[in-house]
Amino acid sequence: MSLPHPSVLLGGISPDIFLRDYWQKKPLLIRQAFPALENPLSPDELAGLALEDEVESRIVLTQGATPWELRRGPFTEEDFKTLPEQDWTLLVQAVDQFVPDVAELMKAFSFLPSWRLDDVMISYATPGGSVGPHYDNYDVFLLQSHGRRRWKIGQHCDDQSPLLDHPDLRILSHFEEQQEWVLEPGDMLYIPPGIAHHGIAEDECMTCSIGFRAPSHQDILLHYTDFLSQYLADSQRYGDPDAKPVAHPAAIDDQSIERLQHIMLELVNDKAALATWFGRHMTEPRYPELIQPQELPAGTLLEELQNGYGLMRNPSTRLAYRVDSDEHLLLFASGEHCLLPATLLPLVQLVCNNDYFDSETLLGWQTDDEAWTLLEQLLAKGDLLLEGDDE
Ligand code: SIN
Ligand code: CO
User: Fold this and answer.
1) What atom of ligand 1 comes closest to residue 191's alpha carbon?
2) Which of 145, 209, 210, 212 to mutate to test ligand 1, by most ligand atoms within 8 A of the CB atom?
3) What digits encode the pLDDT tens for the residues 295-342?
4) Using CB atoms within 10 A as the burial measure, which of 44, 223, 306, 318 is most buried?
């Protein structure tokens, strides 16, 4: 698939201007963002994925047994046969992990950090199909890949915005329409977090939602403190060597709170610990069960490469890195991290930014013990896969 240049992708706007004026701020409609788009998978192939156990899928019927009825996958072929002619949507999560052409779409967004990208959800809708007016807490690019869908944009929303009384779906009870467009294949709509949107299929259509990861403050606090607490000794305690006699023994005074604030601020001030936790958190895979350790006899890597096979990145693996100092860098892979010498930066960048590595390139690292160990470890953990295994 040929990917559009960023200026085409963003409708003539440079990534700089897009980030300044639209990103996280206001919606942007881009006609023909992907001018030569070929639908990366057919409705039948999407339905096929929804039959698989390891794939998350849902069907929303605008008027089923109840309004906005939600059915959860995996589905059977029989389930699809009993669906009405129209007014329903099938949604499949993280299709990029199963279909390489869909993963390819994400590369068009490489002006944004890859660890901010989450997944590509694909919906297939019959005429009238909709998942209702709603808002999301993350940025999304809605790329029309087949047929036409009408998108309505509404008000700014937050946790106080009234919702319908629905057990599973967060559907807005009020929608204040502000703009409306019909998207054709290749058109794309950017929607920032918190903006109400409502898509209704004009005819049979498919939409790819390129969604982003944004940890909630709740998650940041909870998971960072959880991570950090592993490294704190039980003997590290609240202390008050500056204590003075008190007149009111039950009162909690300001100094006591300030001592606590001091402890907390010192802990949060540990930039290295925060960065380590963040890299691990942002690379946590959605489907960890799809990254299985591989037991390979010693010498397998060299043998495979010498036979001309390359390596592939496991499509479920998430990778990122951080240059820590002049001497070190941290590589984050599937929620774990390792400290590496800074000399491995070119290899780390290669591994993080590509999904296929040919034998010739990798054999160039054979004489560097640390580089070779890294490749062997990523292979053993299942983050990298042998191309030969795919045949
Ligand atoms: C859809 O594709 O129908 C829904 C996508 C979204 O609103 O985020
Ligand atoms: Co949405």
Assistant:
1) 8
2) 209
3) 999 999 999 999 999 999 999 999 999 998 999 999 999 999 999 999
4) 318
Angle, CA 252 vertex, CA 248 and CA 257 arms, to 5°: 145
Closest CA to 140 of 169, 116, 158, 162: 116
Residue 2 in this model has a pLDDT that exceeds 90: no
Q: Which of 282, 276, 274 has its CA nearest to residue 118?
A: 282
| pTM of the shown model | 0.95
Inter-residue contact 285 to 317 (CB < 8 Å): yes
Residue partners of 247: CB distance under 8 A and separation at least 6? none
Distances in Å between the alpha carbon of 69 and those of 122, 125, 236? 19, 14, 52
Question: CB of 301 closer than 6 A to ligand 1?
Answer: no
What phi and psi values does residue 271 have, to the nearest 5 degrees?
Answer: -60, -40
The backbone region for 59, taken as left when phi is positive above 0, alpha when psi lies in -120 to 50, beta otherwise, is beta
How far is C-alpha 277 from the chain's CA centre?
17
Could you report the per-residue pLDDT of 26-48, keeping only the tens digit for each? Answer: 999 999 999 989 999 999 999 99
Distance CA 326, CA 279 (A): 19
Is pLDDT of 181 > 80? yes
Is any atom of ligand 1 closer than 6 Å to the C-beta of 131? yes
Q: 66 burial class (0-12, 13-18, 19+ CB within 10 angstroms)?
A: exposed
